[in-house]
Amino acid sequence: MKEIISTDNAPAAIGPYSQAVAAANLIFVSGQLPLDPATMEFREGGVQEQTRQALTNAKAILEAAGSGLDKVVKTTVLLKDIKDFVPMNEVYAEFFESDCPARAAYQVAALPKDALVEIELIAVK
Prior knowledge:
With about 120 residues, the chain is an alpha+beta fold. The protein contains two helices and six strands; from the N terminus they run βββαβαββ. Strand 2 and strand 3 (about 25-30) form a beta hairpin. The longest helix has 18 residues, at about 45-65.
């Protein structure tokens, strides 16, 4: 059995997918773009501000599911340019200070809406 997770505190899905899906004891958060949920626009700034917004969105979705960033077990970070890894990582470390989740991070050819970063997560309830 699966449960669809949705919150107004994160951007609405821009396609045929859910913000997150809970199944058994796991929560699968769809890739979060750095969109401000109030305006559906990117925050001003570069990859650091976009990383901060993407993780803030993911945090809101996890909280709506009854979980939190402290229960994340795996993340995937998609970067428009792998040269942004270090500045992205600096902000990422603000959200995951200890007992960090497993992670993959890699460069992709392009991201929706020409974002600099997209982040997806898997967490436990």
